[in-house]
C-alpha cells in the first residue's frame, strides 16, 4: 500500500485577498526620497506576504492538504544589488517564526522553488554568483522559520550553453563547491527542454541530493526513455536518492517521502505550458505503476488553478474510487493505493 499526498503552489484561489507575492519594483522604491521609509514599506509588504502565507497554510491544514510550496517572493527586492546592505530578518522574525511553528506543529511539508535564474550549469561567473545569492536568500527564509533540512529548495540544472555534456559537468563541479548549508537544502528536478530524467538523475546521484521527478516535463522531454524504462530503470534509482537523504537525516519514509511534480499540458499547441487543472488518468497511470517501489509519495500539483485544481482532482479521484477498488480516499488531500 502506498500513501499519496497532494499539494499546490503559492497562491490560493479560494482564499480572498491572500497573495503571498505582493511586491514593489525597484523603480518605485528608488523614487521614494526617504530611504528609511522606503525600506519600512518593503518590510510592511513582506509582513503582508508572510501573514498571507500563514493564512494559506491554515487553509491547507483545514482541508487536509499537508503539502504546500511557498512563494519565492515573500520579501520584495531581497536580492536586488542596490539593497545588499539591507537585513530585513530582524523586522520579520516573529512572522517567519509563526509560519515555522505552524508547519512543525501540524507536521506539514513545505518547500521553495528558486526561479529559472538560479542556474549552476552557467559558464558565467556573474550568473553563478547571483545564483548562489538567490539560493542563499531562499535558505535564509527556511532558517528564519526554524525549519530543518526536510524543507527543501527545488532547482533545475540550468542551460546547455551549446554543449550539454560540458554544462552537466560544470553543474556538478559548481554545485559541489557550495557550502553544505546550501547543498543539503536542494532537490534537483528534470526540466522540459534541456536536462532529461537520465541526465538529471545522474547529476543528483553524483552530487548527493534527492531528485524530484516531474512527470509533465518527462512527457515533453523524455530523452528517448519509454514509460516502462522510466518505471523499471529510473524510478527505483530516484526513490533511492530519497532513501539516502533519509538515512543522512535519520528519518523514516513517512517523514520524508519521495516527491514528484504533476501537471497537464496547456494545449496541443503549447504542450509545455501548464493547464488550469490536472487530468486524472495520466497521473493515476503513473502512480499505479510507481507505487510498488515506495510506501509514500508526495505529489506537488503545478496547475494554474492552484488549490481549486487540487480539490477538483480529488473529486475526480473520488469518482474513480467508486469503480476502482485499489483507491481509498483518506482525506481531501491524501489517497491510498493498494
Topology:
Elements: E1 2-9, H1 26-31, H2 35-62, E2 67-69, H3 89-106, E3 109-112, H4 125-144, E4 152-155, H5 164-176, H6 180-183, E5 186-189, H7 197-207, E6 211-214, H8 215-220, H9 227-249, E7 258-262, H10 280-290, E8 296-301, H11 306-321, E9 327-329, E10 334-337
Parallel strand pairs: 1-2, 1-8, 2-3, 3-4, 4-5, 5-6, 6-7, 7-8
Antiparallel strand pairs: 1-10, 9-10
**Beta-strand fraction estimate:** 5-15%
Largest sheet: 8 strands, parallel, barrel
Average pLDDT for all residues: 97
N-C termini distance: 4 Å
Q: Given the structure, what is the number of helices?
A: 11
CATH level-four homologous superfamily name = Divalent-metal-dependent TIM barrel enzymes
Side-by-side strand order of the widest sheet? 1-2-3-4-5-6-7-8
CATH domain class: Alpha Beta
**Any idea of the CATH topology?**
TIM Barrel
Q: Nearest-angstrom radius of gyration?
A: 20 Å
- Uncertain segments are none
Helical coverage, percent range: 40-55%
- Looking at how many chains there are and whether they match, the oligomeric state comes to single chain
The CATH architecture is Alpha-Beta Barrel
In the residues, how many domains can be counted?
A: 1
Amino acid at each position: 500500500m502506498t500513501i499519496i499526498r497532494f499539494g499546490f503552489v503559492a497562491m490560493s484561489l479560494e482564499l480572498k485577498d491572500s497573495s503571498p507575492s505582493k511586491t514593489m519594483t525597484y523603480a518605485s522604491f528608488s523614487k521614494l526620497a526617504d530611504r528609511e521609509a522606503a525600506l519600512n514599506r518593503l518590510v510592511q509588504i513582506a509582513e503582508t506576504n508572510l501573514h498571507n502565507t500563514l493564512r494559506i497554510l491554515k487553509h491547507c491544514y483545514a482541508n487536509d492538504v499537508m503539502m504546500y510550496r511557498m512563494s519565492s517572493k515573500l520579501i520584495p527586492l531581497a536580492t536586488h544589488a542596490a539593497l545588499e546592505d539591507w537585513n530585513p530578518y530582524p523586522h520579520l522574525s516573529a512572522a517567519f517564526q509563526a509560519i515555522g511553528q505552524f508547519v512543525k506543529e501540524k507536521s506539514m511539508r513545505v518547500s521553495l522553488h528558486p526561479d529559472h535564474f538560479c542556474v549552476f550549469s552557467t559558464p558565467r561567473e556573474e550568473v553563478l554568483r547571483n545564483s548562489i545569492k538567490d539560493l542563499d536568500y531562499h535558505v535564509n527564509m527556511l532558517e528564519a522559520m526554524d525549519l530543518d533540512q526536510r524543507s527543501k529548495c527545488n532547482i533545475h540544472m540550468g542551460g546547455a550553453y551549446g554543449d550539454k555534456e560540458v554544462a552537466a559537468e560544470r553543474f556538478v563541479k559548481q554545485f559541489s563547491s557550495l557550502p553544505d548549508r546550501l547543498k543539503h537544502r536542494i532537490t534537483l528536478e528534470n526540466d522540459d527542454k534541456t536536462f532529461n530524467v537520465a541526465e538529471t538523475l545522474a547529476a543528483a546521484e553524483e552530487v548527493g541530493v534527492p531528485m524530484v521527478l516531474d512527470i509533465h516535463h518527462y512527457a515533453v522531454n523524455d530523452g528517448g526513455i519509454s514509460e516502462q524504462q522510466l518505471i523499471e530503470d529510473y524510478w527505483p534509482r530516484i526513490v533511492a536518492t530519497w532513501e539516502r537523504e533519509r538515512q543522512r537525516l535519520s528519518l523514516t519514509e513517512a517523514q520524508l517521502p519521495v516527491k514528484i511534480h504533476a501537471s497537464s499540458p496547456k494545449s496541443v499547441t503549447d504542450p509545455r505550458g501548464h493547464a488550469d487543472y490536472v487530468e486524472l488518468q495520466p497521473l493515476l497511470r503513473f502512480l499505479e505503476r510507481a507505487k510498488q517501489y515506495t510506501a509514500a509519495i508526495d505529489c506537488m500539483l503545478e496547475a494554474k488553478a492552484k488549490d481549486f485544481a487540487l480539490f477538483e482532482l480529488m473529486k475526480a479521484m473520488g469518482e474513480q474510487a467508486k469503480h476502482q477498488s485499489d483507491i481509498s480516499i483518506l482525506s481531501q488531500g491524501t489517497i491510498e493505493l493498494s
